[in-house]
Design goal:
There is one protein chain. The chain is an alpha/beta fold. The chain contains eight helices and eleven strands. Strands 7-4-3-2-1-10-11 form a seven-stranded mixed beta sheet, sandwiched between helices. Helix 1 links the parallel strand 1 and strand 2 (about 45). The mean pLDDT is about 95.
Length: about 250
């Protein structure tokens, strides 16, 4: 068997589209792809709030470019903690979507207050609105959500754990002991050394950093994954430092 060559992928695994009501209207597939490439980013994940309807459109927009687009979702758990649920395939994230839909409160979005929730095509053309209010907690606990994501073959990572709103540590004050985390994401507003100093619990965990991209200028690309290909299994090995894979955060 020929060993596959390790390469370094510059990544931002936390990117929103116009489906997220808090994202700018400019966050349509062709602009997302163009801006990521402009920033020298090789790998992104689309992670809209509690929804996945725009992922395929961004993947289509990226066809023929060097950019890989992974399916994902930023899930708001019952504890009001934001988490990244990352997958390899649309089928996996669609299975996740069905479960999330069954655990969402029956609330309608108020676009004048929260913002619009647009589903678009690969060119950014309007298809429909999502009427379900997305900026709300589903009724899955962190533990339940992590087990579901793991069962589906995905990767479960608490998002911006240092952020006061919806960040794991400010919200809960601790790291749950009944969940094994492959990594924890820190926000764009702190560096790893400062994060570990402010939150000593982080010293024993692998950290990643993403832009939490809501506007085109938010792409960060500070996480560099040394892997053989942009897949969940390869990323998982990088997070655990297996088989020569690793992840480094650079300014």
């Amino acid at each position: 068997m020929i060993a596959r060559k390790l390469s370094t992928f510059r990544a931002d695994l936390h990117v929103h589209t116009v489906l997220s009501p808090c994202a700018a209207v400019e966050m349509i597939p062709p602009i997302i792809v163009a801006e990521a490439l402009k920033c020298g980013i090789d790998l992104i994940a689309i992670t809209d709030h509690n929804h996945s309807a725009n992922i395929e459109a961004v993947q289509q927009a990226a066809q023929g470019t060097p950019l890989t687009v992974l399916p994902g979702m930023e899930l708001q758990t019952k504890e009001e903690v934001h988490t990244l649920c990352l997958f390899d395939t649309l089928e996996q994230v669609m299975d996740m979507q069905k479960i999330v839909d069954n655990h969402m409160p029956n609330l309608k979005n108020d676009p004048e207050f929260f913002g619009e929730q647009f589903v678009v095509d690969a060119s950014g053309n309007f298809i429909r609105r999502v009427e379900q209010m997305l900026l709300v907690s589903c009724q899955l606990t962190m533990k339940e959500a992590s087990e579901i994501v793991d069962r589906l073959g995905g990767l479960f990572i608490p998002a911006h754990v240092d952020r006061v709103k919806f960040g794991l540590l400010p919200v809960l004050g601790l790291l749950p002991t009944d969940i094994t985390f492959s990594a924890l994401e820190i926000s764009r507003h702190i560096d790893p050394e400062s994060a570990r100093k402010q939150y000593p619990q982080l010293r024993t965990h692998t950290l990643i950093q993403d832009g939490d991209v809501h506007f085109r200028q938010d792409f960060l690309g500070s996480s560099f994954y040394t892997i053989t290909e942009p897949s969940i299994e390869e990323i998982r090995q990088a997070l655990t430092g297996k088989n020569g894979r690793n992840i480094k955060i650079k300014p």
